[in-house]
Amino acid sequence: MSNPIDRREFLKKSIVAIGAGGGAIAQAAICIRTRAQTEGPYYPESDLNRDQDLTRLDPKGNDAEGTIIELSGIIQDASCSPISGALVEIWQANAHGKYDHSEDSNPLPKDPNFQHWGRMTTKKDGAYLFRTIVPGHYPLDPKLTGKTPSGPRQFRPPHIHVKITARGFQSLTTQLYFHEDSYSDAVTKDLVKDLNNWERVPSDLKVTFVEDKKDKTKPRTGAFSFTLAKR
Ligand SMILES: [Fe+2]
Hints:
Bound molecules: fe (ii) ion
Mean pLDDT: 90
């Protein structure tokens, strides 16, 4: 530091560093921990075939039934910084409301082309992405299969189960729901609105899947970022 030029450079760098630090403190972001929900009885039983595309089980086979959607977002910490190396798992019912699980006794149609679960690990940017289909609603009591939902807590609203584990963080298990505006036809819109209301689905777990205004043949996309708490 005896050289005056070096010292000048050092001071300049220090001022820049203090300025950046001050700005970061003033604008410190806070992300609220994502609400947890029950795992439910249908956590995947098998470890096979769990990539990010649930819309086709066999690459050479047919597409799953139902409307294709894409769900994406960031896995982040309480300061909204992305978490690298987070394992993100999703599982859900098929378009008819049926799970691929031995405990699911609802007599609803199976879909042999649907991959009922998927998983991926985040990279540095904390980003995740899944391609899947809109799940059907299903009755809590199998005897109600085939009936139309007509009151509170008879059927589960459409939802996607999610489990996230990351080193140094508390694992998160939750469920994402569909905002009624994710649907284009009026009858389904009203039904999903009723199902969400009857179950009192928290608004912070509802995702709106929006259509591409320029290209309506593209799948609707939904954005949801998950915030994990440190251990
Ligand atoms: Fe479920």
